[in-house]
Amino acid sequence: MADRKSSSNYRKRPAAGHAKPAAKATPVRRSFRDALKALGPGLITGASDDDPSGIGTYSQAGAQLGYGIGWTMLLTFPLMAAIQEISARVGRVTGHGIAGNVCRHYPPWLLYVVVTLLFIANTINIAADLGAMADAAKLLIGGHSIVYVLLFGVTSVAAQIFLDYKRYVSVLKWLTLSLFAYVAALAFARVDWGDALAGILLPRPIWSFDYFTTIVAILGTTISPYLFFWQASQEAEDQRVDAAKRPLIEKHYGARREFSRIRADTIIGMAFSNLIALSIIVTAAATLHAAGKTDIRSSAEAAEALRPIAGAFAETIFALGIIGTGLLAIPVLAGAAAYAVGEGRRWPVGLARKPKEAAAFYAVLALSGGIGIALNFTPINPISALYWSAVINGVLAVPVMVLLMFVARRKDVMDTFVIKGPLYWLGWLSTLAMVLSVAAMGAGLFVGRS
Q1: Which domain holds residue 368?
Q2: How far apart are CA 132 and CA 230, in angstroms?
Q3: Is residue 20 part of a domain?
Q4: Exposed, middle or buried, 75 (CB in 10 Å: 0-12/13-18/19+)?
Q5: CA atoms of 394 and 392, how far apart (whole Å)
Q6: Based on the structure, what is the number of domains in the chain?
Q7: What is the pTM of this model?
Q8: Which long-range contacts (CB under 8 A, 24 or more apart) does 246-253 make?
Q9: 42-51, 148-157, 377-386, 418-427: which has the minimum mean pLDDT?
Q10: pLDDT tens profile 204-226
Q11: DSSP character string of 259-274
């Protein structure tokens, strides 16, 4: 099998502790690599949450409402960390992703509805992200946007299909470093740190349609269904790659250590995600909002608007971050769709498998990416597409989170590892937050601006 072969080749590499003595600088580099290697699906999941679409949402929030919206990052952190940890535990305990568990324990029609909506939302999101990346590349070096759409789209899909799994995961981890571009951008913004901290620590709601619409957008962007599916499936995938690992329902030994690893990985990934999102909000608040530029509709537009306020270098950093995060997020979006469809159909799935061993799985992955590329050739407005993607994601998140909470509590699924205690209740609190978010979004659609 390809996954065993990949795992075997990976284990032949000499361990860090047995390497030859090297120059003084080498241990520093090696320790950083080891630290990055120790982090897994949680880091990639958290970083992919800050995709170009998310960057556009956070930029708009900061530009429109200033520092006062920063508190949402403190609110969403424990909620997203809890639901992602539960997703990861389900994958690690059962050896199946969310769709794999739903197809085994719930009616087929429910699975078809959830998976279909996920595929549609992810594909539209891919299209929007590719468009944003192309606009950022055009901003940096000129040329035609459609060429960049093809380049980024085909490269992302081909890398997932043809790269060795271990090497591919390593590439994704290194791509997470591109998000530090938004921390660097803060250096070019004249931040009023007193007001910024007040906005983060002291919520001061404004009773307006725009304010609550922005909160709904932030919640929908931060807590997204594709993240649940990806992290659960990646935990299951790691067991297929590592011959020493088995689902915890089959091999109970080491469960506490695995749960500690999952919690640390998830907390670090979600904290990283929220730190970057907060950096984007603060940067936009300190530059765009302060200059009266409150109508920013995309991440590329935010980058362009930074030039006259914070300088050309700040614009360049912001645009490079958009491209880097897109290269990270598109594989997660396409991969999550492929895992959901493949597990739901009980096909052989996994990025560690050779294409001929999981042809249907890779076909779904390529189809999602291909449609995402094709949508950029249509007259569909990318901002409208992104809006409806957010609507679908928000609506889909509710039943998926409810299903996930039920699965995590079922003894016939989780055996002795059912989710309980504070994590369980925090998961339901996260679900309730999404229910209220979708209800508010629905009310906004029907009531409209007053």
Answers
A1: 41-447
A2: 22
A3: no
A4: middle
A5: 5
A6: 1
A7: 0.86
A8: 246/95, 247/92, 247/93, 247/94, 247/95, 248/92, 248/93, 248/415, 248/417, 249/93, 249/94, 249/95, 249/414, 249/415, 249/417, 250/95, 252/416
A9: 377-386
A10: 888 777 787 788 788 888 888 99
A11: HHHHHHHHHHHHHHHH
Residue that the structure tokens 């030994």 belong to: 253
68/82 Cα distance (integer angstroms): 25
**Is 216 a domain residue?**
yes
* Contact yes or no for 84/231 (Cβ under 8 A): yes
Q: DSSP for 197-212?
A: HHHHHS-----SHHHH
The set of residues, in sequence order, having a beta carbon less than 8 Å from that of 12 and lying 6+ positions away, is none
Nearest to 327, CA basis, from 145, 172, 110, 128: 172
The pLDDT assigned to 220 comes to 80
Taking only the tens place, the pLDDT of each residue in 12-27 is: 444 444 444 444 444 4
Q: Please report whether residue 31 resides in a domain.
A: no
Please state, in angstroms and rounded to a whole number, the distance separating the CA atoms of residues 318 and 322: 6
Give CA separation, 91 vs 81, 157, 234, 271, in Å: 15, 24, 8, 21
If you ran DSSP here, which 8-state letter would residue 14 be given? P
Of the two residues 410 and 390, the one the predictor is more confident about is: 410
Asked if the model's pLDDT at residue 54 lies above 80, the reply is: yes
Token reading at 67: 């520092």
DSSP letters along 140-163, please?
HH-S-HHHHHHHHHHHHHHHHHHS
pLDDT at residue 382, rounded to an integer:
65
Lowest-pLDDT choice from 106-115, 193-202, 304-313, 338-347: 304-313
CATH code of residue 240: 1.20.1740.10
What is the Cα Rg of the chain in Å?
21
Residue 386 falls inside a structural domain: yes
Say which amino acid occupies 172: L
Report the b/e string of 206-235 with b at 16+ CB within 10 A: eeeeebbbbbbbbbbbbbbbbbbbbbbbbb
